[in-house]
Amino acid sequence: KQEVTQIPAALSVPEGENLVLNCSFTDSAIYNLQWFRQDPGKGLTSLLLIQSSQREQTSGRLNASLDKSSGRSTLYIAASQPGDSATYLCAVSTITPSDYGGSQGNLIFGKGTKLSVKP
Amino acid sequence: GAVVSQHPSWVICKSGTSVKIECRSLDFQATTMFWYRQFPKQSLMLMATSNEGSKATYEQGVEKDKFLINHASLTLSTLTVTSAHPEDSSFYICSARSGPVNSPLHFGNGTRLTVT
After folding, report:
1. How far apart are the CA of A18 and the nearest CA of chain B, in angstroms?
2. Span B89-111, average pLDDT
3. Neighbour count for residue B61 (Cβ, 10 Å)
4. Number of Cβ pairs closer than 8 Å across A and B?
5. In the prediction, which pLDDT does A102 show?
């Protein structure tokens, strides 16, 4: 059964710092890995998607890496800003359907890292 | 592109009533949609997979008779919470895929359900 773990659960940094969020998963049979941002009480904003054949993706100040063999991904945020404060979720797209018939390609989420960037 | 619209964004209902939540793919066709639930300070948990023209498949612990899913067209899936109870209060969010199985999922903005 695929399990996704995110460390740390919460992180508080001063504005301007570079930071790294970690994600690990137990089953390397994935199509891709996505990083999302969720603001309190809101839906999900997709940040980056890394296909299983890729090693990293970049978008602006964000860089995500994927090491599928070791079951790890990191999200690097450069020059953090107060507007980056949110919960960041990592999710993997499963190749193996769930035991209860769930379709391939559904996302298994970690519990998230709650980031607070202080001005 | 690839916009998923979810309605309503929030709803308050009395215990024992039923609530329907709609999920629409606005600019693409989705043969598969997924319904997730998120309790406070928890992550998103998959409830069921909705397949157009066939029965939904439910994850462990999710009652199919309580959470009715209908995927009648390639652009619309509905989740009906029947005989809602306070413990059903949660954030429900749908997603849909616009391409092959390794393509990204696109999420609606979610529905906050409060059962009083």
Report:
1. 25
2. 88
3. 8
4. 75
5. 52
